[in-house]
Design goal:
globular
């Protein structure tokens, strides 16, 4: 069944200023993987993979917090809210701690744990426990004190044998003692002991691998990883309940003890009286894997691994509803396509060596598909994609937006009509073929790059077979073209993205043969651009990204850098297609632009600038000729949640640049829009320009190469520019020298040939 979520416009207005000219950003994060929950008197706080949200149970209002607001894009592992200090504390797997002041929204990033001289893999924060203004932080190496008032770290307790590191899962204070549930026993010390940094002050009460410990009423309870609940009494622990499954979360409040296993959530009152129990099998349309649970004002919130946050009450038979904020199915969008009206995203794919079996350590993966438009997010769950695994790309039919095709790098080509998957092209019902070298009975149909030509034919790449280039004609017939004449060894070729130029030449990225080009007009002809000075001058045969700019240049992103083919029109009349690097001056020394960079994506915006996404260095915005790096966005200077960029796409009408990373998708509110066909829809914003505004004035809806002159009311020229694309910016200065005064300014616009003109006005208030 399709999952359709309601659109909330406030979720689409998440902007924040960063160091690069207070740029405008927006986040599109998934909230489906709940890591932890916390609560105040009437507010529920939830942490997903790398974003937060809170819900006021009285007003029913929802608030989200993401990297746009200052969070890290790393993986969250623990969450806590201090009612006393009105602060929310976020813990991460790498040891980062972020303190959010709920009074003003400010954030403090604390890196003391990250900076400890310890192995990086034992710095994970597992749990927070507050006692008398001190937060006891349970980590994979021990316990750290954090003062919630001064926001400074205190002592660190290494309480393993002989003072070594030990993974502490949870702490609790009970009858004057501090208890720690560890991977090797429950350990106890007096909370008033001023020398707890001495491991000899800690007593081991019971061995075993413990997952949690909490004080509830007049009792102390602890859980083991094998699913048993123990109660403390007479100076020892004794088993009181067995769940037969791993206990992943144990917590309590004034009235309830909450025990969570992957398949069951149990609520107990005093004396371990069972109040309510929810099994995952009760939620038929989801069958979720539970991760945690909490209670706020008699509302029971259930965290899940893939199905977000569910909500119900403690009443018998109460319905279970979805309380998850809007977002894509997953954060790790592998690729997407965006048009002026919608965006489609997929999550399958393959590793860097085109291996679908190792992707996310469990491939070939069966994931769903997401679509976003003005009505909100629509999710097609994995159960509805007709078994198509490792879906790596998606394309919208330019002649019929209701028809979409998703490439499966394992199962074939999935057709979606009116948002419903209805046909899977594979080796039995189409011209697509399974790889043959694993034997005739093993099925593995690797479809990846897709592109529509101007006749409405859909071209697809079918990797690791001889007839690797296929076309689904507009009449429904399939045709195949052999790669044997062009590839070194066709059954070894894995193909990535594909695009078609205005001459109907297909340009295909491959991992073994560089760029494969094909044109079927007249005599079908293959050519390729590959490694070596006499074979195309690529730095490697492994090509990952292709883009054709407005000057008909082919920009080629490889696993070892960037190359440019000067003119795609030369395909038919040139025997050798040779590329060149872009040479720039850096500190007066000639350098190759993006030397040795692993490039995953290249997109050309409306001003002919190039957006380049890399495997580990973030995003570069390059000028049209590549000689200037306009921006270089990373996790350090922007809301990017990761420096690993999977895909980039641009809404040609709004100029919004979408960037998909391994940890979530964000967008940059750019101004480089596609050129218009006339000057009939030219508009100026903001207008008027008020004193508090610090950005630039945009003149949009322009023809390409339109001449724009701005004068004051007396006719004095203050700015002049020629558009590249559909938008230009004015910084409201007189040729960059000084801010112009308050007043009305005239904007005179003319087409390149002077035939079409337009006049606009803008008011500036200082």
């Amino acid at each position: 069944m399709r999952r359709i979520v309601v659109f909330f416009c406030f979720l689409l207005a998440l902007n924040v200023g960063f160091s690069q000219n207070q740029l405008s950003w927006q986040g599109y994060f998934s909230y489906n993987e709940i890591k932890d929950v916390a609560n105040a008197t009437s507010v529920l706080f939830a942490a997903s993979e790398n974003a937060l949200f809170s819900k006021n149970t009285l007003s029913n209002t929802l608030k989200t917090t993401t990297t746009i607001d200052g969070l890290s894009g790393l993986t969250i592992s623990a969450l806590y809210h201090s009612a006393t200090f009105n602060k929310t504390i976020v813990g991460y797997e790498n040891g980062l701690l972020i303190v959010i002041n709920e009074n003003n929204g400010s954030m403090l990033k604390v890196v003391d744990i990250i900076n400890k001289q310890l192995p990086a893999n034992i710095k994970k924060i597992n749990h927070f426990m507050e006692y008398q203004g001190i937060l006891y932080v349970s980590c994979d190496f021990g316990i750290v004190q954090f003062n919630l008032n001064t926001q400074l770290f205190g002592d660190t307790y290494f309480i393993g044998d002989l003072g070594k590191e030990i993974s502490v899962k949870q702490t609790a204070v009970f009858e004057g003692n501090l208890y720690a549930a560890t991977e090797n026993g429950i350990r106890r010390a007096a909370i008033t002991n001023s020398n707890l940094i001495d491991y000899q002050q800690w007593t081991i009460l019971l061995t075993d691998n413990w997952s949690g410990i909490t004080a509830f009423g007049s009792d102390l309870y602890a859980s083991t990883t094998n699913g048993a609940i123990y109660k403390y009494g007479l100076n020892s622990f004794s088993i009181v309940q067995s769940f037969g499954d791993t206990i992943v979360d144990l917590r309590s409040d004034a009235n309830n003890l909450i025990v969570t296993t992957p398949s069951q959530i149990s609520i107990f009152g005093s004396g371990l009286f069972l109040i309510k129990q929810i099994n995952s099998t009760q939620i038929l349309d989801k069958n979720p894997i539970f991760t945690c649970a909490t209670i706020v004002n008699a509302n029971l919130f259930l965290g899940t691994k893939e199905n977000g946050l569910l909500a119900t009450t403690l009443s018998v038979g109460a319905p279970i509803v979805d309380s998850t904020p809007l977002g894509p199915l997953r954060n790790a969008i592998f690729s997407f396509q965006v048009t002026p009206t919608e965006l489609w995203a997929v999550y399958g794919g393959y590793t860097g060596d085109y291996n679908p079996y190792s992707y996310n350590s469990s491939g070939p993966n069966l994931y769903g598909i997401s679509r976003f438009n003005s009505q909100g997010w629509l999710s097609i769950p994995a159960d509805d994609v007709l078994g198509a695994k490792s879906i790596s790309r998606i394309i919208i039919d330019p002649n019929d937006a209701a028809k979409v095709y998703a490439s499966s790098f394992f199962s074939g080509l999935l057709r979606i009509e009116n948002e419903v998957p209805n046909f899977l092209y594979n080796q039995t019902n189409s011209g697509l073929e399974s790889i043959a070298f694993l034997g005739p009975t093993y099925i593995d149909v690797r479809i990846n790059g897709t592109a529509f030509d101007k006749s409405g034919n859909l071209w697809v790449t079918n990797s690791r077979i001889e007839n690797g280039l296929k076309v689904l004609r507009s009449n429904g017939q399939w045709q195949s073209y052999s790669l044997n004449t062009i590839a070194e060894k066709s059954i070894d070729v894995s193909m990535g993205s594909m695009l078609i130029d205005k001459n109907s030449t297909k340009w295909i990225a491959s991992n073994t043969d560089g760029v494969i080009a094909f044109n079927e007009s007249g005599t079908p002809t293959f050519k390729k651009i590959t490694f070596g000075a006499d074979k195309g001058n690529l730095p490697t045969t492994d090509v990952r990204a292709l883009a054709i700019d407005t000057n008909n240049q082919l920009w080629i992103g490889t696993t070892k850098g960037l190359r440019v083919l000067s003119n795609v029109n030369n395909f038919q009349n040139t025997t050798a297609l040779t590329t060149k690097p872009i040479i720039i001056l850096e500190d007066e020394v000639a350098q190759e632009l993006l030397f040795e960079q692993f490039i995953n994506a290249i997109v050309v915006d409306g001003a002919n600038n190039k957006w380049v996404g890399t495997a580990d260095s973030g995003v570069f915005l390059l000028s049209s000729n590549g000689q200037k790096t306009i921006y270089h966005f990373t996790t350090n200077n922007s809301p990017l949640p990761s420096n690993t960029i999977n895909d980039i796409g641009i809404n040609s009408v709004t100029g919004e640049v979408f960037i998909a990373t391994t940890k979530g998708m964000i967008s940059f509110k750019g101004v480089a829009t596609g050129a218009s066909d006339s000057l009939n829809n030219v508009y100026v914003y903001p207008n008027p320009v008020r004193p508090e505004f610090s950005g630039t004035v945009k003149i949009a809806g322009l023809l390409d190469r339109a001449n724009v002159k701005i004068t004051d009311i007396e006719g004095n020229l203050v700015h002049e520019a020629v558009s590249e694309g559909g938008t230009i910016e004015w910084d409201t200065t007189a040729f960059g020298k000084y801010k112009v005064a308050s007043g009305v300014y005239m904007i005179f616009i003319s087409a390149e040939d002077g035939v079409e003109t337009k006049v606009k006005k803008v008011m500036i208030v200082r």
